[in-house]
Specification:
The complex is a heterodimer of chains A (225) and B (691).
Chain A: E1 4-5, E2 11-12, H1 41-52, H2 57-60, H3 69-92, E3 103-104, E4 110-111, H4 124-139, H5 153-156, H6 159-176, H7 178-188, H8 190-200, H9 213-221
Antiparallel strand pairs in A: 1-2, 3-4
Helix pairs in contact in A: 1-3, 3-4, 3-6, 3-7, 4-6, 6-7
Chain B: H1 2-14, H2 25-30, H3 38-110, H4 115-119, H5 126-133, H6 135-160, H7 164-192, H8 198-210, H9 212-217, H10 223-226, H11 231-245, H12 253-260, H13 267-285, H14 289-316, H15 323-341, H16 347-359, E1 366-371, E2 377-382, E3 388-393, E4 397-402, E5 415-417, E6 421-424, E7 430-435, E8 441-446, E9 451-455, E10 472-476, E11 483-489, E12 494-499, E13 503-507, E14 515-520, E15 527-532, E16 539-544, E17 549-553, E18 559-563, E19 578-583, E20 589-594, E21 598-603, E22 609-614, E23 620-625, E24 631-636, E25 640-645, E26 650-656, E27 666-671, E28 678-682, E29 686-690
Parallel strand pairs in B: 1-5
Antiparallel strand pairs in B: 1-29, 2-3, 3-4, 4-6, 7-8, 8-9, 9-10, 11-12, 12-13, 13-14, 15-16, 16-17, 17-18, 19-20, 20-21, 21-22, 23-24, 24-25, 25-26, 27-28, 28-29
Helix pairs in contact in B: 1-3, 3-6, 3-13, 5-6, 8-14, 11-15, 12-13, 12-16, 13-14, 15-16
The structure holds zinc ion (2 copies).
Amino acid sequence: MSKMKMADGSTILRRNRPGTKAKDFCRWPDEPFEEMDSTLAVQQYIQQLIRRDPNNIDLILKMPESQDEGVWKYEHLRQFCMELNGLAVRLQGECHPETCTQMTATEQWIFLCAAHKTPKECPAIDYTRHTLDGAACLLNSNKYFPSRVSIKESSVAKLGSVCRRVYRIFSHAYFHHRSIFDEFETETCLCKRFTQFVTKYNLMSKDNLIVPILEEENTPGESEA
Amino acid sequence: MEDNSLNMQNGGQMGPQGGSVGNNKQNDEINPKSQYSIPGILHFIQHEWARFELERSQWEVDRAELQARIAFLQGERKGQENLKNDLVRRIKMLEYALKQERAKFHKLKYGTELQQGDMKPPVIDESSESQLDSDQSFVSVSNSTWKQGRQLLRQYLQEIGYTDRIIDVRSTRVRALLGLNNNNADQEDNQNGGGLNANESNKRASETQGRRTPAKKAQPSSLAEAMMLDTEAAVMANLEFLSNTDVDMDDDDDMNDDADIEPGDEIEDDVKMGKKDKMDNDLGLGDDVDAIALEVFNELNRLSEAEKKQDIKTEQGKRAIGINDEDNVDSSLGLGELAQLTVNNDAESTYDIASSKEAFRKTWNAKYTLRSHFDAVRALAFHPTEPVLITASEDHTLKLWNLQKTVPAKKSASLDVEPLYTFRSHTGPVLCLAISGTGEHCYSGGLDGIINCWNVPNSNIDPYDLYEPDILNANLHGHSDAVWGLAVLNSKQYLLSCSADKTVKLWAPHAKQQLLSTYVSEQDGIPSSVDFVRDEPNRIVASYFSLNCVIFDTETGKPVARLESTAADGVNSTARQINKIVCHPTLPLTITAHEDRHIRFWDNHTGKMVHSMVAHLDAVTSLAVDPNGLYLLSGSHDCSIRLWHLDNKTCVQEITAHRKKFDESILDVAFHPSRPYIASAGADGLAKVFV
Ligand SMILES: [Zn+2]
Ligand SMILES: [Zn+2]
């Protein structure tokens, strides 16, 4: 168990007990990854890194040695989909079926919602909800992902298409609800982390990464090429 | 024959020495060597015939006895064969389950293509296949063969007339078959039971065996006693219970027969024996290897029960055990045993009593696994009437599940259900949840300090329907920190909430003026959990960080009673904190779940603690009382849920249900208000429903 003896002999229990204040939620001492013996160790570790500093994307995406890469990618994607709920909640207030009748980013493409038996032209907000719900079902499916400690290759292959679909939520927000996107991005760095993640693990082609988020960051440092 | 027999004796003595002809009796005596005479010969023949007749009749008797013995042995053999068949069937089912698991594993390892090829080999003969198709059919088959066998046995026994010895023989044999196996299994389990508490369990197991008898005696004083209810009420409750639960127990019938065979002269052991036999049956019934592994683990844990009861007893100190209540317990159990042992009883009544006795011990098995949340499931609540539930998670969402809409994919004891609707509005983890008495609304409290009131969508909607903003009915703003507890009062459509902002608030969520009042207890700090006092609708109770609970009058807003814990030296309050408070649906009783592994019971009128027990191996996080007020369900960070009989505070069943994330495991438990479902919510992101 992830207990740690403190100097005074008492044990740290990493729990959010009822009555915990919001500011103290999950505010416990970090636990080294090697000492996590739970089947959910990778999730615990990723969340711990994010809580410590959501801006330190390199550290968050740095896979521990001897970690199974499939599980690492899978747990990160779970975390992305979970945090995307936050963006979806914000979009619900502004992205209405009357105004955003289709899922678009730039005018180039209309995305069809793949959650239905035959892909449908869902309004953007429904596309968002359906895609997140579908991702939740797929990533929790007993058929494809029965275990969280080892994942077969054929299932790892499914992660790419989930990435492509959920990325459209970022791009719709960026191109159509910019203030929501900026507010959310400032708080979470989620789109930036996601972009770096899919680039690092080759889960999406560069052409599809249409939110200009890494360039923005890089421009001041590097000479414009 | 009288005369003849007299003569026979004489003749018998005399005859061999020489047959006399023409002599009478007197002559015989006077003259032993007298001549043969016709009457003498006739007499001798007569006598010999009579002797043979006697011997023949003796042999007849012997033969009858032997036949009876054979009949009995045959009957016994038949019974044993039935038992054997039953066990073989179960072994086959286990093998099948194992094959399935292997196939599953294989499939997962090498990809979906191999599925068909792999799924075929494990398909055994049609009979076992059909049994697997439906538990019901399996049960009825085994049940009817059992009934036949028992009927036969009973007939034989009646013929023979001697019952007691046979029962002894029979029960010892059956015990040799079941009991000894059980013991072996236990020992093996103990040896194999590595992991966190193997040593502890071993120690406990051995202690338990030594102390079995006292353990039974050490049943803690009952709720009824504590509440000063009179005997009659308790007896009535018992009777009512027996008749009520009868109905749901149909599917456990086949277990009764096994339990039936328990010996009557070891009533102290019966409680244990019964449970063990039942556990064995469970092994057979569950087709899911996981479930079986869990059961084995549970059984291992169960061994520590008795020892805990000892602890409770000592903790109880001088508190007298109500004689009446103990009688209740014993008589109800004892009656069951006796009824089963009285072979001449009418068959039906035997079965009835047996099944109601089993009702005492309905075994819950995991049936549905609800997987769709990305993070810990903090709370769950059942719809009042439909097989529908809602879960609330740290992934910021709530999800609606219809247990009748399962994924028809795989043949497995545990069914997957996909959520019908995802509620999104909280901007942080959702911590608590309540459903209104009509099932139309649900309320969720979050780390964001907001309480959302939702219109529950129809339980037959398409999961990928269009977004309807009016599903979110209202937000209740008022708390300035995380909302950790919610409770509804159906009669008035009131909602009660508690928050880390130190307040408890009463709401009328569907009225114009939503916030009714705010309750604060400055001396006690932050409330951790709240509930309505169910037997007095204008009272509420809240548990606080101070380890005290306060009962408020909702009309005056004043505290009317305090349930105060005595401070323990050297233990900080976090280590003993109250994680959950619930009120009994009908009695003036409050139950609290503590971080220090205890469940404590309080009298609302006196404010005194009436009972305290170590209930789990780790912090107790959650409690639920069944709608009839007979059972208590508890969940703990020790990964298990436990079902308690409220009357005598004994653990009826333990199920290992969830895995740990950090140091958290089970976060909520619930009873369905009107259907036989229980559920648990875990830090592993899963919710499980048991039937
Ligand atoms: Zn939009
Ligand atoms: Zn759609």
